[in-house]
Amino acid sequence: MKTIFIEYPKCSTCKKAKKWLEDNKVQFIERNIVEDTPTVAELTEWIKANGQDIKKFFNTSGLKYKELKLKEKLVTMTDKEKIKLLASDGMLIKRPLIVTDKGISVGFKEENWKEVL
How many CA atoms lie within 13 A of 110 on its CB side? Predict the structure, then answer.
């Protein structure tokens, strides 16, 4: 499996993460989280492989998250509903994501990325 780097190109953290990948000579496939939003099937697989709570996949600091008042709503939603919601709008997903055959990392933390690369 090729390493997939899922980003929002205007995001400063995504730019920093991309530079880190390039500086560390990691080959990757770029994917725009808005133009090519992860599907329900992909998110289901990645969330399972990641092993963390689904909430970690939500961009809790994003405008869309706040607009939709998801902090209150997520509490009553099923996992399937949460995944369907994430798949409906890439701006709801925490970014960047790195997907490899060793695992998935959400957000950019060098130590986490080193583990999955």
Answer: 5
d(CA 41, CA 26): 26
Which pTM value belongs to this model? 0.93
Give per-residue pLDDT as tens, 50-82: 999 999 999 999 999 999 999 999 999 999 999
Helix/strand/coil (H, E, C) string of 4-48?
A: EEEECCCCHHHHHHHHHHHHCCCCCEEEECCCCCCCHHHHHHHHH
| E strand or H helix that includes residue 104 | strand 103-106
Query: Which domains, from first to last, does the chain contain?
Result: 4-116 (3.40.30.10)
Look up tokens 């869309």; give the residue.
64
- What is the rounded (10 degree) CA torsion for 101, 106, 111, 117? 20
Q: Which residue has the tokens 């998110």?
A: 43
